[in-house]
Amino acid sequence: MKFSEISCEQWEELSPFLDTCLLPVTGMTGMVQPFEATAWLERLRDIMDLIEIPFKGRVVTYPAWHYISDHSAFAEMLNEWCASVKKAGFRYIIVVTANQTLNITGPEIDLSLRPDEDGGLPLQAEVSGAIRALWSGQAT
Question: What pTM was computed for the model?
Answer without folding.
Answer: 0.90
